[in-house]
Amino acid sequence: QVQLVESGGGLVQAGGSLKLSCAASGRTFSSYAMGWFRQTPGKEREFVAKISWSGGITYYADSVKGRFTISRDNAKSTVYLQLNSLKPEDTAVYYCALDSRYIATTGVGVDYWGQGIQVTVSS
Question: Considering the chain, what is the average pLDDT of its residues?
Answer without folding.
Answer: 96
